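User: Predict the complex with adenosine-5'-diphosphate.
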Amino acid sequence: MNIIMLGAPGAGKGTFSAYLENKYQVPHIATGDIFRENIRNNTELGAKAKSYMDKGELVPDELVVSLVVDRLAKDDCKKGYILDGFPRTMPQAEALSAELERTGSKIDYALNIDCPDDFIVERMSGRRVCPKCGASYHLVNVPPKTEGICDECGSELIQRKDDAPETVANRLKVYHTETQPLIDYYREQGVLEDVDGTIGRDNVFAVLDKLLG
Ligand code: ADP
Ligand code: ZN
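Assistant: Here is the predicted structure with adenosine-5'-diphosphate placed in the model:
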């Protein structure tokens, strides 16, 4: 089962991808996570990506595409995968289509996690993450057991630099101009499913169960 997660930043793609990863035992490939891991490990790729990410801009297509193409070639992707945060531009979508064609593979579902902008802004202002292990929380919706502390590893939680209000506004703008056109691209391919992202995490899980069987 090959799945693409579409939706605005903060729509919950990461949460729903993790759910599907666990349920179907296929890898969850999140380009944002890969970049953040590279930043933590001070790699060359991390240094290149950071300047864009901090401003809420997209990392250039050629950096992202080669990264994902390499990742999809790994053995664990043979049984399927969940792409979270990729593709995010039309050139990325077209590069992915070309690669799938080359390898005789296809996308089964593009899940569009649909949320209005004001909902996104509210949610991102409360998001907190663990700088050490990457776990994600929300002050109101998904609070950690101890305020400000990661449940998984005990580190102090922080607000991602790109979750600052000015950056959120820019990310939404970038989403609408660059990524939203992909919804129609995958709709035309007959694989798009719209999922209301505002109904609460467990309700979305139930919708996904029904949709994917
Ligand atoms: P969110 O979905 O909440 O915006 P991500 O973790 O998916 O967060 O992405 C964080 C940042 O990483 C993006 O704002 C962008 O700078 C960069 N990024 C991630 N995926 C891509 C991609 N496919 N193309 C370009 N930039 C990307
Ligand atoms: Zn942690």
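The two ends are 11 Å apart (CA to CA).
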